[in-house]
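Standup notes
- DV: blocked on the single-chain target, sequence here:
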Amino acid sequence: MDLLAERGSLTVSELAAQFPDLVASGISKHLMALRATGLVTAARQGRHQLYTIDADAMSRALVPWLARYETYWAGALTRLREAAVEPDGGDAGTL
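- DV (later): unblocked, structure below
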């Protein structure tokens, strides 16, 4: 997923080149599972499948999960914002 996020679309061969200790068939099976969940899409490019992250599906999957933990990091961000404001009401810097 990180490689797809960084580089956009990749084939199984391009992904496999980044993991020399793994076989391409294992990477392909992993991609099939991600495709079955809708997190990645595949488009034919000649003889190869080009895999891409489905941003909408990723958002639908992550938003509820992130919302569950928002109370933990929202308070920290509020405290950071308050610490950045000088006592006279001016900003100590831009965040």
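- Follow-up: The chain has four helices and three strands.
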